[in-house]
Amino acid sequence: MGRIGYFGILIIGLLAFMGSTEAHLKMGFYNKRCPKAEKIVNDFVKQHIHNAPSLAATLLRMHFHDCFVRGCDAVKSLVEAECPGIVSCADILTLVARDSIVATGGPFWRVPTGRRDGLISKSSEALSKVPSPFDNFTTLQTLFANQGLDLKDLVLLSGAHTIGIAHCQSFSNRLYNFTGIGDQDPALDSEYAANLKARKVQNYQRQHYYS
Ligand code: HEM
Ligand SMILES: *[C@@H]1O[C@H](CO)[C@@H](O)[C@H](O)[C@H]1NC(C)=O
Ligand SMILES: *[C@@H]1O[C@H](CO)[C@@H](O)[C@H](O)[C@H]1NC(C)=O
Fold first, then answer.
1. Is the dihedral of CA 57, 37, 70, 15 positive or negative?
2. Confidence (pLDDT) at 51
3. From CA 207, how far away is CA 34, in angstroms rounded?
4. Could you tell me if 90 and 41 are in contact, meaning their C-beta atoms sit under 8 angstroms apart?
5. Choice from 4, 11, 49, 64 to test ligand 1 binding pocket (greatest atom count within 8 A of CB)
6. Which residues lie below 8 Å from residue 69, measured CB to CB, with a gap of 6+?
7. pTM of the shown model
8. Label partner for 87 (CA 20 to 30 A): which of 41, 71, 81, 105?
């Protein structure tokens, strides 16, 4: 698993501010009404990431996907037991994403809170707004622009992929069959492509000879 570089702080900081046009975000929004909220989240994350480090990337990605559809609203969580109805799911997911990265040895960044949860969730919107691995660069820029994010945001936020995994089906067409004639995507760095192809052979050997 890779490490998030120090500029990851910048990267995720951007997501932390997305959706801030509707709610007024600030540091320690729950300090008075639920002072233990951030600690509860942090303790839970530290405990679970310790047992399953790969969860860190999954949780960070979940935060990104959540933000791209009607702002950052999210799933229900454990903070309810301490302070019923006070802390938004969106804030919890944002804190979880940060704490997961910290717990795997990545950088720390400050997360302002005060997000409000949305009441609408549509799978069709998730499909149309969240970028797909098969989108070209122009489409990625458009999808980011739809969220008020520019080219620099796109490049920096993509740095989140320093951690985590991708399944072969998400990118194998770019290695083996980009236009349907058994070719490689000419835009893909050739050294990187060779590296990925070699890893495929290793995985194949592992599955067929060693297990
Ligand atoms: C620029 C548009 C983006 C595209 C097209 C994209 C696409 C993808 C794809 C295809 C995967 C692999 C999924 C799989 O095969 O299982 C992935 C994984 C991941 N993405 Fe993105 N992504 C984008 C932006 C982001 C952003 C902005 C973040 C967070 C700030 C992010 C965080 C992650 C993480 C952490 C993983 C690894 C998940 C894991 O290991 O479980 N991505 N992304
Ligand atoms: C990018 O993809 C879109 C949608 O599939 C397509 O309309 C557009 O022509 C593509 N642009 C480039 C530069 O390939
Ligand atoms: C490559 O893509 C073409 C067109 O989509 C398809 O007909 C062909 O079976 C693919 N080749 C392989 C090896 O998957």
1. negative
2. 85
3. 49
4. no
5. 64
6. 121, 122, 125, 126, 129, 130
7. 0.82
8. 105
